[in-house]
Design a protein that fits this description.
single chain, alpha/beta, Spore Coat Polysaccharide Biosynthesis Protein SpsA, Chain A, 2 domains, two-stranded antiparallel ribbon, 11 helices, globular
Length: about 325
């Protein structure tokens, strides 16, 4: 028996869902990395109406992959939901098209599910190009429900990584137990992109599922290569997601300390984005997201917020994640 065959027998089937939109230049490398994995997987590409030849690439470079053609850009979360629905494996892995996984990525990422049936999500470790700096090892939350990639911008020292404060995986390299994902309804499709992983993590934690880390599941993240680094589009969409989350979870009603910190942090973030972009995309996005959240409610589970992150720490983390 080959090493890969033995590994395949040791792990349950995995569906790998890749949401994409006009990412042909990135997708080929992503598919190549998945084909080189130490365990088998079913690849599902959910295409948001690409016009750059993405569909043709998938058919030529990965004919075994399932292609879910959405016809238009529905957003990250809706694309993932449809990709997940197209599969049936007990575990689902989400990979951004701008992430290149090490050969043992899937094997390492799936391993923690065997430790406990209560583990509903697993966070992999993403490095920045050059592999010397951490991009993210899951997410942590401050009291305003602002989420930050853990260890972002820090030198990569495997021995220093731990799971303290690990709340949920980043959607760019995440694994979910299908039963958990489906039981809470998957991603909230009111979020076009950004923070959908935070919202899902809150709902999964509230339903009793736990998050584990897999620091040996390594990938390299090209970072916002599809949306455009710090583009107006990125800033406005991210702002809309932030405004939506603030209203959905009633952050301004969580107490004076949380409300004051949220207002100060958002003012600083909007001010910085306005100066950098010379437009009001960040503010427009937050206003639109706030209106979208009208009538939508969510609960913040106990124990998911890191109360040690104050305003200064929150602003520093925001800067490190840029």
């Amino acid at each position: 028996m080959t090493a890969r065959a033995a590994a395949d027998n040791a792990f349950p089937p995995l569906d790998v869902v890749i949401p994409t939109w006009n990412g042909r230049h990135l997708l080929e490398g992503c598919l190549r990395a998945l084909a080189a994995q130490t365990i088998a997987c079913s690849v599902i590409v959910a295409d948001n109406g690409s016009t750059d030849g993405t569909i043709e690439l998938v058919r030529e470079a990965s004919p075994a992959a399932r292609l879910v053609e959405l016809g238009e850009n529905l957003g990250f979360g809706p694309a993932v939901n449809r990709g997940v629905a197209a599969g049936a494996a007990p575990f689902v892995v989400l990979v951004n098209n701008d992430v290149h996984c090490d050969p043992s990525f899937l094997e390492r990422l799936a391993a923690p599910f065997e430790e406990s049936p209560q583990i509903g999500m697993v966070a992999g470790l993403l490095l920045r190009p050059g592999r010397m700096v951490v991009d993210s090892y899951g997410l942590e939350l401050d009291r305003t429900l602002a989420a930050f990639p853990r260890f972002a911008g820090e030198p990569y020292h495997p021995e220093r990584l731990d799971e303290s404060g690990l709340f949920a995986p980043s959607g760019g390299a995440a694994a979910y137990r299908r039963r958990a994902f489906e039981s809470v309804g998957g991603f909230d499709e009111r979020l076009f992109a950004y923070m959908e992983d935070v919202d899902l993590g809150l709902r999964l934690q509230g339903a009793g599922w736990r998050c584990a880390g897999a620091p040996e599941a390594l990938g390299v993240h090209e970072r916002s290569a599809t949306a455009g680094r710090r583009s107006r589009r990125q800033v406005e969409i991210a702002g809309a997601s932030r405004g939506y989350m603030l209203r959905k979870y009633g952050v301004l009603r969580l107490g004076l300390r949380s409300a004051g910190m949220a207002l100060a942090a958002e003012a600083a973030a909007v001010g910085a984005e306005t100066l950098l972009g010379r437009d009001l995309a960040a503010l427009r996005g937050r206003i639109a997201g706030w209106h979208r959240g009208a009538g939508v409610t969510g609960e913040v589970p106990d124990g998911v917020v890191d109360d040690t992150i104050g305003l200064i720490g929150s602003l520093r983390r925001r800067r490190a994640s840029l």
